[in-house]
Amino acid sequence: MSTSPPRSLDAGARETAVIAALMVNARAAMVEFQSADQSRTDEAVTALAWAIYEPDRARELAEIAVEDTGLGNVDSKILKNTRKTFGCLRDLMRVKSVGQISDDPTTGIIKYAKPVGVVAAVTPSTNPAATPVNKAMFAIKGRNAVIVAPSPAGLRTTTRVVEYMRAELVKIGLPADLVQVLPSPVNKTLTQELMKAVDLIVVTGSQNNVKRAYSSGTPAIGVGAGNVPVVIDETADLRDAAQKISASKTFDNATSCSSENSLVILDSVYDATLDALREVGGYVCSVDEKEDIRKTLWQDGHLNRHVIAKDAPVLAKTCNLAPAAQNAAFFLVEEDDVDPCSKFTDEKLSLVLTVYRASDMEDVIAKLNGILKVCGKGHSVGIHTGTPENATRLAEEIDVVRVLENQAHTFGNGGGFDNGLNFTLTMGGGTWAGNSISDNLNYTHFLNITHLVKTIPGDKPSEEELFGEYLSKYGA
């Protein structure tokens, strides 16, 4: 896969030439792939999945990602590389995406799926292997081609996984150029040129990239920031809740946008909940330790890249926490109320959880809204409860796309084997988050649909049926 233009070109011209070459390759590959039936398409999707799911590759990619980005931990990334891919493949093998995909005699509408074209998949440093494969699987399911734009920090990992995907495509007799990656050096200008050239942009990660995608003039799907608050009410199974919160918060050192960032605990079970969290590795920081974390985790108003997503002992040592904190799995800082000016209200990308005490569900609602106003509106919230009505209330009153009930948030928000959400690594937040989608990114976002419209028996109600009740109540 050679995209290197002549050295005599200046920087801007070279970037334009690189993108032009990638686009020629992608469109040629799509022409070769356009006759694929559903079986052949699904074979291609399976090939991409195996590119990362194969155990040796899953580990190698995880190790390179942690080595290069310094974010997360190897065991979690191995699980992310395999579990997300397996779940996504399960979902994709159960749906149609080629030719006629539905026929509704009632409406007389028959739907035909067609490609959207060449997709730019902008991917983050937090998931430099799993996210490119996830997006490529969606794109290929729609018989599209995809060009991956990696983060600079994740370039080596993303390039390697793209090489594996290309090799698997060749192995089954399909063009490797269905999946390509931007060459080094990757920069904003190169990514911006790609955004202008393709037919669809799908962005995960930097909110600056999301904004650039939406202003590029190309149809785009971008997702908002996470900052997940989770409620524990007085009817929750506290031990179960604590175990799930611990497993979720510590997964990949809290790099996921679905990782819990705050806990809102009902007053009647506040102390008991903290005890349960201590039993699973939580460390409640003193006032002085909280200040040490604040000064260390944020530098010049921004998250400190030398601290985020690090192992717990590293964070404890860097923040000068007490010796007892060295054995903790995650850290709890208590706040009296939701303060928009407090950094602890924001997303932390670290093993730090902000804890709030709430007097009742009215107070819970107020605190959730306060947190999400700072960051994370539209994304998701969670609740641990034995009272389903409380979960229903959150779904009715909080402006988020997902409300998870009694689940480990990181493992359920992007699809789980025990919930019905689509497996994905890209979660839309609706217009609340400035996004164009309000569900989990999935294969349907990579399809154009043609509607064949048949005539049906007339369905025209009388004026009385439509206006009668209104006119009898309010008059003409």
UniProtKB/TrEMBL annotation:
Please name the GO terms that the record assigns under molecular function. oxidoreductase activity, acting on the aldehyde or oxo group of donors, NAD or NADP as acceptor
The Aldehyde dehydrogenase domain covers 19-279
The UniProt entry, under Gene3D superfamilies, shows: Aldehyde Dehydrogenase, Chain A, domain 1, Aldehyde Dehydrogenase, Chain A, domain 2
Q: Which keywords describe this protein according to UniProt?
A: Oxidoreductase
Positions of transmembrane segments: none
The keyword Oxidoreductase belongs to this UniProt entry's keyword annotation? yes
Asked if the keyword Ribonucleoprotein belongs to this entry, the reply reads no
Q: Which InterPro entries match?
A: Ald_DH/histidinol_DH, Ald_DH_C, Ald_DH_N, Aldehyde_DH_dom
Q: Which NCBIfam families match?
A: AcylSulfactDhSauS
The protein depicted here goes by the name Sulfoacetaldehyde dehydrogenase
